[in-house]
Fold these 4 entries.
Entry 1:
Amino acid sequence: MRKAEPLGDVGRLLRRVHIDNVLLGSLLLLCALGLIVLYSAVSQNMDLWLRQFMRLGVAVVGMLIIAQLPPDLMRRWTPWGYLFGLGLLVMVLALGEVGQGAQRWLDLGIRFQPSEIMKLAVPMMAAWYLHDRQIPPRPVHLLVIAVIIAVPTVLIAKQPDLGTALLVAAAGALVLVLAGLSIRLMFLLAALSVPGAWVLWNFMQEYQKQRVLTLLNPDSDPLGAGYNIIQSKIAIGSGGLFGKGWTNGSQAQLEFLPERDTDFIFAVIGEEFGLLGVLSLLGIYIFIVGRGLYIAMQARDTYTRLLAGSISLTFFVYVFVNTAMVTGLVPVVGIPLPLVSYGGTSMVTLMAGFGILMSIHTHRKFLSR
Amino acid sequence: MDLFTPIKDHHSETRLFSARILLSAVIATLLLGTVIARLVQLQIVNHEIFAEKSVGNRVRIEAVPPIRGLIFDRKGRVLAENLPTYQLELIPEQVADIDETLRQLARLELIEEEDIDRIKSLASHGLRFKPVTLRFRLDDNEIARFAVQRYRFPGVDFQPRLVRHYPYGHLTTHAIGYVGALSTGDLNRLDVADYSGTFHTGKTGIEFSKEALLHGATGHQQVVTNARGREVPTDTRELSDALPESQSSLPGHSIYLTIDLDLQRIATEAMQGKRGAVVAIDPNNGEILALISAPSFDPDMFALGMSSSEFNALQSDPDRPLFNRAVVGTYPPGSTIKPMLALAALEVGATNLTRRTFCPGYYSLPGSTHRYRDWKPEGHGEVDVHDALEQSCDVYFYEMSRKIGIDRMHYYLDQFGLGQATGIDLIGEKTGLVPSRDWKRAAFREPADQTWFPGETVIASIGQGYLLATPLQLANAAAAMATRGKRYVPHLVAATEDPISGARRLIAPKRLADVNIQNEFYWESVIAGMNDVMQGVRGTARAVGTGAPYQMAGKSGTAQVFTVAQDEEYDEEEIDERLRDHALFISFAPLEDPQIAVAVIIENGASGSRVAAPIARALMDHHLGYGANEIQ
């Protein structure tokens, strides 16, 4: 009996640590697969691979720390987090560093992109606002939330970073959809966007129109923007059912495929692991999204369920936009394949989101209904 | 919770939320379904087509560079054309070790060591399949040297390319500018895709300002190379799902300039060994007939590429051949502004046609002992406005300036286009400066410096002090004088032509507001004075104008570079050549129905009438049909 006691302590400690094992397991599986693919995509460059490995490690630890914070605490701090993020965005526009033609980075000891904070802060703020209010929201509340979403979205789009702006807007909009935004209103907004686009088109300069046309039809600019998508289609198509094998993709290894370690890494998977490989990967993604939606359904209060639902669905938006873009279904916007593409900024935010999901799931209070 | 807040209905909220989660899941499944369907289409249905392309064939999309537009002079002589040469190129995606390759090429003396960094930066900047030029203009020896070693350099080869050539070299340099190798800076400015396969871009002059017209549009073609020796499928229709159709390039537009090559040659030859600029304008439409800046250089050096040492020699030459004095050089206009001020003086009533002033050889402001000297120490005696122009009497204008005042002087010089951009179709012209009280208040920070002093008006009246003008502005002002106040935007492009359709677009002259002179008779009075400068008995440039078969008007000017102290004598012989006065001259001809206006500036040329005026005369002689042979 005495010898069992220390073990008992560890067991009790583990029970007190807030972790969702199902989510953790599937995320680690995804990261592992991602690292295998990345090794091939960076052409066996160990330096880059190790850097990504360390980043993933840091992100997982960050996720586990966030999972320990109770959702009530997060909710109380939400408005301050949102305002803090907004302040940083304004600072970026005022004095941010310019990297690759856009002003996204802020150097405060460590360099980071404040727009990443908004990917979580916007849905949190929208959920916070609706927490004590009637569901489905009344029109005046819809307007307030529209402002909560629009301000950071516009600031980010101005940097310009359309990919992130899109994700931030989607994360906020998904909260509204989950909160019961009337379906008729959604259709109305969709219908209004058509004349809206027409008006915008007429205000655009000739070169801007040309850019939009290239986005819509990459073949019209095969040496510029269209080049990526043409090469990516060849890579995926030539992979066939089983793929050419790990590190054997000629499109990727002979450098025909641009940005193969970042936004276009999905094409490497398609080329080297074939249809079976990409379907397996999509399966893991679906499982993770499904688990997130399950956690949302189990959540007990308005704030946590809206937040959990938005985080899970935003993750899906990531996966869908990236895969649809790489396969040439939608225009190229800079959105990475989550947790697989090389790069650290979005990974940390994604993992923080999953930390929130874990916290929501493991801190449930079983209120009487 | 107060009574007016609706109580949250947890049951209905949970039901609504669950329904929405379900709806989202359904939509997500549908979206994912389209991605999977697309994957099946690419990887199963069209797999063989893509596999064929990626493995067996290396289908490459190659840029087809456009042919740069030609440039002609007003008589249709080619000033800029494209000649075939061989150049050494490297395709980044086909080179395994770029550092080693470049080192080896340097060892073969095909490239210079100091160019390696520049080439590497270019190779990493552009698209991986786009060739980077290592060397323009390989000679036969170098081609032979590389040919025997070619097997050692995969991805490096020599290619026939069209390179810009300027048949008249230094005669036209500053009018049409030149093209040079695309730099990383150019690539940031230009559309990279539209310059795939292009190696040069306009750097200065018309070549730069009309780049968009001259460049044309890049085309593209599929290049199917078979690395394993397999048959290339003839049915390329199958490939067209992913690959665009070939598209031929569109040649750049030809540009017809207003300049006359003969005038360029005459001016260039006359400026041999001198520093300065000559600009000739047709006053009736603003067409620039000649624009030269001396010394000049051979623009082919930039198009063909030169070594770093050749470039450094050009750049550090104390005579600054790269500097386009005609549009970027600013000089004190000296006495060349006197005709404009005479007009202003008559118009505002500061003088009249009969009023005479005694010139003792110096002028002092009331209550001051400071003597503003006339260029003629013994003085001109009694002079009226006509004599003052003919003999360039400084004292007459010193006195006039006090009555006109600096702000009205500013107004009339501004009317002639001084102190502002002329609007010429070249990028980067300087505006020069015409001072005023307002200008001085804005230009200086210290309150003590902001006050306008009467003495500053006095020296402004002979074109000294703050006044600055470009040779182009002076020619433009002379043209406005010639037309009795009608003004046009000076321009170099007469017409552009689409080489495919042959459609020509003529550039219409752009007329500006007339010079605001109410009494038109004053024009004739001032022009008569300018005529006597050239052809009167006491004219300062009578040596140049007398005996000409037509009537002309002119005005010489001298701009101080070196300040002579109050009691000293300026002795041309004793002063260092570079400190001698600048010589200026403006003129136009014929007197009635003027066809040409000319401005000449010769740095440190000392005397406008003696050194600069003969050059203007030579241009006018030729343009009016009294010249010698033409270039065929």
Note: DSSP finds 23 helices and 22 strands in chain B.
Entry 2:
Amino acid sequence: MPAVQETVERVRSIDVDQYKYGFVTDVESDKAPKGLDEDTVRFISSKKNEPEWMLEWRLGAFRRWKTMQEPSWARVKYSPIPYQELYYYSAPKKKVGPKSLDEIDPEILKTYEKLGIPLREQEMLAGVQRSNVAVDAVFDSVSVVTTFKEELKKAGVLFGSISDAIREHPELVRKYLGSVVPVSDNFFATLNSAVFSDGSFVYIPKGVRCPMELSTYFRINEQNTGQFERTLIIADEGSYVSYLEGCTAPMRDENQLHAAVVELIALDNAEIKYSTIQNWYPGDSTGKGGIYNFVTKRGDCRGHNSKISWTQVETGSAITWKYPSCILRGDNTRGEFYSIAISNGHQQVDSGTKMIHLGKNSTSRIISKGIAAGVSNNTYRGLVSAHRKATGARNFTNCDSLLIGDKCGAHTVPYIEAKNSSALFEHEATTSKISEETLFYCMQRGLSQEEAIALVVNGFVREVLQHLPMEFAVEAQKLIAISLEGSVG
Amino acid sequence: MPLLEVKNLHAEINGKKILNGLTLSVEPGRVHAIMGPNGSGKSTLSYILAGKKDYEVTSGSVSFLDRDLLALSPDERATLGLFLAFQYPLEIPGVTTMTFLRTAVNSVRKRRGESEFLTPDFLRLVREKAASLNIDPEMLKRAVNVGFSGGEKKRNEILQMALLEPKLCVLDETDSGLDIDALKIVAEGVNRLRSPNRSFIVITHYQRLLNHIVPDIVHVMAKGRIVKSGGVELAHELEAKGYAAFEQAA
């Protein structure tokens, strides 16, 4: 599978960068002490050589966070997170990983095998510490990354880590950071604002169509910035960018709590397409040890005629709390949300979107496909609202849920608020079960039960898969089949 | 040696007895017709042969290619070469007919130890077979059976049959809901598949279908078992006399 191969290549490049930037720093000084107070925030900021304004921004967020309550409205259950017991900063290269694949959950290894990932790459994905990196691999990927960066530079596209951007492009960062997801937005976003480790920064200049799809895998140290990732993407007037985040291979991580923030800004006539495949470790068969994923993703169609489109395939994590949203501020703006959320085993998913119509004739479209199996719970939660001035606002929402087995749950919680009489909102929702009859029909044609389920589910989510970039879609299709293995007893 | 050997089969669903000592032997290359009134257990027989869950076999045995058929899962039976053309084919939204065909055929071929088709070869094969069944190529791009007419669904069943190359084809009321033109196309499709290595069990209410698919042996089924067997003339006798006489005999 070439697409998988490509992922592997990208993963390889991560390791290369780690190698390039050294394994040699002193362990002790690279880790902030356990717990979170102002000193932790100062420590992080100073480790990253941040300017004073950035530190003040973080401290403001931290002070705010101390006054906030963890939200409890989502349909997810988990034991209290011991915030003072966590580590908030450890230098990327210094994380202590498992020494060999023997220490990795065999279920993950099986999945790697099914995705066709070679042994050495499996080790990298699983975070196994290696003392050396094969020389050929180093040369290969360095050249790939270099070519890639040169092409972007020619187009004038800025693409790098947010830490670098804070130092190199402070005017852009100061102008836009926190302008879509304010520091005080919500408990997890505020926490992220105080302690974010790293993330991506993208700026597409006026009138530029980004010459390639931007993927997180080309960025340094990606593997280790997952915990409190911060992403900022700005599409200036008339520009276009497609951004891919994630990987089909399940990612192992030491940190159970993840609270990322993603902000997108589209100015006049600009378009941003953001695609995610999320496959964090969902925990073992009893649900233990999975990632808690509390993400705030929001796009602002700030300019007229701008467009933001979110496409997500969510298959991993023990808990997913995620609502990629669009603020349709400009006139004639468009927001889209295409989502596939699969929960199996003990996973809990509470995901959806918000479409906030502020501009005239703004339109939005929501297609959500939830699939629940095992003893999981899968909730769609969405808000569509039209401001008084958003005349001619239109939304179409379609939420379908598919149940596999009889121990899982699917829930749909749509909120609709129209404050002007010309807004036109449509909402469709269905819940169905994979019928025994359909499975029998497929099996009579020679498909195993698991193949039959995968086929039916891929049919169910087809409309969303079509919105993913080609190579991502092919991988997603395979991933869906793998995610649902063992879903019927 | 018979391809299929059903011996004294008793089966029930939700405690209700449906099959009541059914015995049937099918030799390779033969076409058997099973006729009988509603509720005689014809469809139940086809479902039990194909391995549908809901039914409980309380006694008797079924061997297929010298294997204990009842011990196998539906997909294992399909792999061995048992095909059931459904009376009511199921719809699979979002899955194109072509994808479904390719998935099924390659899955079966893989498990039979044969090589999987390359996509271009497979497309050519499907188009060719589809054309012989008067299937519009556009139909192959539509989701499996979704919005298909009765005739299209049945032709789609025969197309799958042709591609999966089974050893035993069970046709469950394939004539139901077909007009005479569609019936002819379907029957011709079946006749083209007749061969010394392939047997058929054609289940039907009416003699009409048997004018187009001429059977070697005709069975009359009533109250869960076969009450009379004979040649084609038996079908004509049934058409003339009706089922009542046979039901009393059972």
Note: The mean pLDDT of chain B is 92.
Entry 3:
Amino acid sequence: MQLERTRIEIVDCAKTYPDGTRGLKPTTLTVEPGEVVALLGPSGCGKTTLLRLLAGLEGADRGGRILFGDQDVTARPVEKRGVGMVFQSYALFPQMTVAANIGYGLLVRGIEEVERRRAIGELVDLVRLNGLEAKRPAELSGGQRQRVALARAVAVRPRVLLLDEPLAALDAKLKESLRDELAELLRRLGITAVHVTHDQHEAFAIADRLAVMHAGSIVQVGDAETLYRAPAHAFVAEFLGRVNRLDRDADALARGVVKLGGVEWACAARSAEASVLVRPEDLQLGARQPGWAAATVRHRTFLGERIHLRIEAAGQPPLVADVSRDSPFQVGDEIGLLVAPDRLMASMETAA
Amino acid sequence: MRSTAAAPAPLLFAVTLAVGVFMVAPILLSVMAGLVVNYSTGLKSGLTLRWLAQVWETYADTVGASLLIGAGSVAATLVLGVPCAYMLARSRSRAARAFEEVLTLPVAVPGLATALALILVYGQMASFRRSFAFILVGHVVFTLPFMVRTVSAAFQRDELVALEEAARTLGASFTQRFLGVLVPAVFPAIVAGCLMVFTLSIGEFNLTWMLHTPLTRTLPVGLADSYASMRLEVGSAYTLVFMAVILPVLWALQALATTMQKRYGT
């Protein structure tokens, strides 16, 4: 089954609710044909609002435009917009069987029964629900319900697929296996999709590009690796993974360095920022040696595949280092600490 | 650890038993009164079915009338109440809240007052006034809020809002999603509402007593009539008829509702 590939253009779309709260600031985003874009952010950041604007379940403020391909769909009601949507709760029709759920969109379109059955059969194969056609949603597992919801959404051959936290209702183990399955299925369908989530790993696994959202606007758009390695904003760095913050005093700022445990590392390019960020896995630990910062291990947390060490070095707040489980360091060890210069990330916050 | 639930509580048991006996005794005595020849002499006077026969001869038509009006109330509250419940659940306007309050008034206002109002307005339309339809209208006014409240609460649940949105994204028109998705999804609540309406209609007395004519009597009105004008044994036999005819119907409906809810519940 191959679906139409449609470009989505969101132009200056904002959403103000009747009580005056701004759900979404004016936002512009383009999703290329066949691309999967994740809207990623904490709750209340406006990601669900943006998705509902795309679906047509909410109307954008005056001035905003939404285009599917060459067609302006801003004024089109949800029933006529040609979107498929997977809801967080799946919203499966409880009194209908799996087959009836999947075929509902075709039924209301007046597709005749023979054709409907053929399409349902194809979708049941696609999402591997064979043998469950006559079951009701209440009799299915969480993962099976999610697949029914997906099959129902794509059955009507939508131009755009919208996924609202599609894996949030599942437990952690299941989530991990299903996200790869979902990613693979979306690629096979080749459909343009927008995926809302607050889970960065889910976004990394499923989306081609991520739009990180914060307080009603998109902060940064890019592929997962770019965003993780070179965040343009401290919020992006912190939301996508853990970070340590290295503070810089006036002297350090003036001389373009960052001071830590008795050494100074140059970071001239970021001379205006009051702090720089470094990820826990980018801290190199070793024996005390010239040029390395002097530090002490204060706390050790064994996590199975990794170990987290809390480290203190003069002149900075405590840092967290993420090391392999074979790391020899114990609480109280005097160690050396090094960060490769290219692993220092900008915080984009200028000194007050 | 010892389970506290397993600990014997003789006092609690005694109280429960006493309350149980206190409540069951009137039912048993009433049944007995309907079957003995003379209540004042008690069982010694012998058992008879004479009173039952007399009740059936005089009041059989009230049983049918009550069942029909009950069914009519269910039908009318379904047609009026379910769409109304949907509108009230989806509207956040002040007018809708005010309407809901007005709708609930007949539950608080004494039935006699509601009945008087109906008579004042429609009393002159003689053929309507003399028909069972007049009583049916009274029952619908009284039972409608129970149907609307029950079903409206179900329509308001977040999952119902999501179901409707899902149906909309799939292209369903309002009629298609209302009849095909929403009504089936709140079906258990509708069944519960029907049961409540039927039960209330069957037992309704206040309103009905004011609205009835000698030719339009329901079972509770007949019961009052028999208590007022005939021997105590006849009145008790009437209670027996009520229990023998109405209770099985209610139980059957209850069982049906439970099965439905099991089958369609989420």
Note: The mean pLDDT of chain B is 87.
Entry 4:
Amino acid sequence: MGKNLFLEDFEKIIIGINKTIQENRILLCQLDSVIGDGDHGMTMAKGFDSVMEKIEKTPPENISDLLKTAGNAIIVTIGGVAGPIFGTLFSELGRTISSDTESVDIKILSLMFSASLARIMKLGGARPGDKTMVDAFYPAVKSLEDSAAIGISIKEALRRMTEAAREGADSTKDMISSKGKSSYSGERSLGYQDAGANTVYFIMKAIYEEIE
Amino acid sequence: MRKLINIPKDIVNEVIDGIVAANKDILQRIGDFTIIARKDVPIKNKVAIVTGGGSGHEPLFSEYVGEGMADASANGQIFASPSGAIILEAIKAAEAGKGTLLVYNNYAGDVLNFEMAMEMARDEGMVVEQVVLNDDIASGTKDKRGNRRGTTATPIILKIAGAASKTGMDINSLKNLAQKAIDNSRSLGVSLSSCTLPETGMATFTLEEGKMEFGMGLHGEAGIKKVDIMTADDTTKIILDMLIEDLPFSKGDEVIVLVNGYGSTTKMEMYIITRKIHLYLAEKGISIYSTEVGEFCTSQEMAGISITLVKLDNELKKYYDMPCEAPGFKKF
């Protein structure tokens, strides 16, 4: 693995994320069933089924299109808040670069993720500490920004990013939900991890494993 | 959990098929989508009205589809917004060339998905506008009405917008009219028990025996104050005082009163409340033009009621008086 990520790397990443989400869908449902309605894993799996269907039918020709196509497939397939939020995660990554961007280095990757985080926080209105996917995504993106600033390898940067996402997802256990459907359970949400934050961790983990 | 259901994941599909079966002369399902539409869509020479949101609040939203009300409803899973794709299909089914007005409640998921559907429909060349209900005074301060959730004013707003669209009103005037009706609507409820999610059988929250909570949301969102259970009259007075102060409603105003049961509250209780509303508003010099009593927006088997007041002017009154025929709201 060199210093840049190309279209085929991103294709592998999307396939890897799909595999990870499908494999962990039961676990994600179990996490969601305690303080949500127990369908998060199935919903995400359904979203990624449609991502794979879309990109197999018309393979995107550049990185930007691939990420936008994946994001839009999730947005239109999944309802609730999860669809728009997780769809935007990908579509905004794609929207940050132009269609003639052939490869992405750690600096650009970091900018893409920063834009995605900003867009999601604006869209959903969640801040760190609200017990949402932001609690995993925010530290993960901050970690990537730090890595880009000190200029370490993409592989090491993604390892740290994944670790930050895992710690972030774990930390939701000690939070009281104040956004999204799980906020309906208020203090009862204490002691349980947020399902969406774990999905972020699985996405990061899949990205790292594909690049490794 | 005490619910007569089959496989949890089939609930929404089965409810939709049930509503259509019971109203087969006027309603249809659109393909395999979780969409209910009037049988005669698209209807020429009128702006289409599309509503929708999470399921589990029946008769909201699908029972408000019918002549003089909504043209179609897009339904999500239990307590979750429909996806943008489903909403877009509902727009396409209802749209007849004069544009579509989306009428829905202010919840994060609904706003995200309806706005995405609106953008997609506009990209395809359709004219789409929206109004978002925020009648629940418990979920935000007066100066931040944009934070407030939509609740039980829905049938009234759909009634007024539906009647106006039937007269051929253009989309911008219709949007302004619906917005005026929303601006004149205020609701507040009180809950006496929790509700259980049918997928998990778990209660959304716990409310101790003997307590009640003002302003609890339709999904168990925390309310504004928890107190020992009070009498129907005292409860009604507290709710009305808060509603009156919020708009504010003044002496000489004319209003529609809607008394809604959340799911397991009896009609007996609703009528006791209704009696007090009439007495108390008379004391305040507010006259009641029309009173609707029943289940309009439920939260599974939650116990409790909500009261909605809608201030009328001559224009709103005119459209409210026109006939409509939807399974959940009829006027002749």
Note: DSSP finds eight helices and 14 strands in chain B.
